């Protein structure tokens, strides 16, 4: 797990997250997770719970739409992380 990702999470949320925390969540993510709106919503809520940051339903909808409409390779989690953090 890149320290850049952990630092970005801390910077954006003010919460420290360990690589083990993220790996635990990531271990349950499969390419099909990105295809299923129900699973994707559950993942977003799981991550928001990890950092103890409430995510509005509107924001969840925006994230779901962004993932579904992107040409993202769902096998590439680094690409997903970059998209979610607003990097090109």
TrEMBL record:
Q: Which InterPro entries match?
A: SpoVIF
Q: Which domain of life is it from?
A: Bacteria
Name this polypeptide is given = Stage VI sporulation protein F
């Amino acid at each position: 797990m890149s320290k850049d990702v952990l630092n970005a999470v801390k910077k954006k949320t003010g919460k420290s997250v360990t690589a083990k925390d993220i790996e635990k969540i990531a271990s349950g993510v499969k390419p099909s997770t990105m295809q299923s709106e129900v699973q994707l919503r559950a993942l977003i809520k799981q991550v928001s719970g990890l950092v103890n940051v409430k995510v509005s339903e509107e924001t969840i909808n925006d994230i779901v739409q962004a993932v579904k409409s992107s040409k993202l390779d769902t096998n590439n989690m680094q690409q997903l992380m970059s998209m979610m953090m607003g990097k090109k």
